[in-house]
Design a protein that fits this description.
This protein is an alpha+beta fold and 356 residues long. The protein has three domains: 1-76 and 152-229, Rossmann fold (3-Layer(aba) Sandwich), CATH 3.40.50; 87-150, no CATH class; 240-347, OB fold (Dihydrolipoamide Acetyltransferase, E2P). 24% of the residues lie in helices and 33% in strands. The chain is built from eight helices and 20 strands. It has helices at residues 42-50, 92-102, 107-121, 136-148, 166-183, 194-200, 218-223, 228-233, and strands spanning 4-13, 16-26, 31-35, 57-62, 65-66, 77-80, 154-158, 186-191, 203-208, 211-216, 240-247, 251-254, 262-263, 273-278, 284-285, 292-302, 306-313, 316-323, 333-337, 344-347. The strands form four sheets. It has a six-stranded mixed sheet, sandwiched between helices. A five-stranded antiparallel sheet has the order 13-12-11-14-20. The chain has a five-stranded antiparallel sheet with strand order 15-19-16-17-18, with no helix packed on it. Strand 12 and strand 13 (262-263) form a beta hairpin. The radius of gyration is 25 Å and the shape is elongated. The relative contact order is 0.11.
Length: 356
């Protein structure tokens, strides 16, 4: 049984639906990341679990308890926000211990638990400081400490790393995973950042337009995206997606190019339309010949150990990742290969993945 269970969850504002009947189960001790673009409903889902938004219809269950009508304080959740929400006039120790102070925990017990949490988060030497004397990463750890000290059933992280610089975000991603491994508390993190999602989650929940597009491990979602949206959203650079049609001899042809057909068995009749996808790392430079497709290098992006190459094939732009040793320049003719076992097919009408 799922520890956090969501059934037919719906949310509307003034008659406008923003969540459309979500069904989701989160296992006990799991680190689940809800990822999607701005406006997809992920933060609304988080706030409904926390009790900060009412439920229009459906059910939220934490453990054995339906929490739809419970106050936030009685749900057993602790939430870490994007903006830290620390009290500027309090020290780090006072900020971390504030939930226990509200609960009238004796001073000695409160101090003991503050020290334990500070040790977990590496904040022992900062307990006497105030928030203005801390870096962004340290402030975020204080906010997490305030959540940890409550010993919640569920941690809720609402884009907690968005205010940090790039280097600090990488560091905090690692710290959050280590913290989860140490505490083993069911955790749900909301983010629009696909890198955070792929590197942190035991499972991903990919949302779009108030609906869940796919649920799975990062490897599953990346290797077999359930829809065109998921295929294009996860991955940097994103997956190449082409309008295509099936040809004779078990092949597909890309619209807008004069290249030879690509061998591929999509189990569709000849002339059927579809969307064909391939990830940039699966496109390879190839010698001219059978199944090689001619193009012209349009742009080369140097990224240290590899290059992102944009190749124009007729009216179609193809992105490929090649190693740094490849000698490429803009305007250079190249030939590309699209391995049949690395192609993805999606319905041109619905965007759903086709069985191949």
């Amino acid at each position: 049984m799922s520890f956090v269970s969501i059934r037919n969850l719906q949310k509307s504002y003034d008659g406008t639906a923003v969540l459309h009947g979500l069904d989701l189960g989160i296992r006990e001790g799991e680190f689940t990341v809800v990822v999607g673009p701005s406006g997809c409903g992920k933060s609304t889902l988080m706030r409904m679990i926390a009790g900060l938004e009412s439920v229009t219809d459906g059910e939220i269950r934490i453990g054995e308890t339906v929490v739809n009508d419970l106050e936030p304080a009685h749900r057993g959740c602790a939430m870490v926000f994007q903006n830290y929400a620390l009290y500027p006039h309090m020290t780090v120790a006072e900020n971390i211990g504030y939930p226990l102070r509200l609960a009238r925990v004796p001073r000695a017990e409160r101090d003991r638990r503050v020290r334990e949490v500070a040790e977990i988060l590496g904040l022992e030497s900062y307990l006497a400081r105030r928030p203005k004397q801390l870096s962004g990463g340290q402030r975020q750890r204080v906010a997490m400490g305030r959540a940890i000290i409550r010993e919640p059933k569920v941690f809720l992280f609402d884009e907690p790393l968005s205010n940090l610089d790039a280097k600090m975000r990488v560091q905090m991603r690692t710290e959050l995973r280590r913290l989860h491994r140490r505490l083993s508390v069911t955790s749900i993190l909301v983010t629009h950042d696909q890198v955070e999602a792929m590197t942190m989650g035991d499972r991903l929940v990919v949302m779009n337009g108030g609906r869940i597009e796919q649920v799975g491990t990062p490897a599953e979602v990346y290797a077999r995206p359930a829809s065109v949206f998921v295929a294009g959203f996860l991955g940097s650079p994103s997956m190449n997606l082409f309008a295509a049609r099936t040809a004779d001899r078990g092949a597909v042809a890309l619209n807008g190019t004069q290249t030879a057909d690509i061998p591929f068995d999509a189990a569709l009749p000849a002339g059927a339309t579809l969307t064909l996808g391939i990830r940039p790392e699966d496109v390879s430079l190839a010698p001219q010949g059978q199944h090689a497709h001619a193009g012209i290098v349009d742009l080369v992006e140097n990224l240290g150990g590899h290059r992102v190459v944009h190749v124009r094939m007729g009216d179609v732009m193809v992105t490929a990742i090649v190693n740094q040793l490849a000698a490429l320049r803009e305007g250079q003719p190249v030939s590309l290969a699209f391995p049949a076992d690395r192609l993805h097919a999606f319905s041109a009408k619905t965007g759903a993945r086709l069985s191949i």
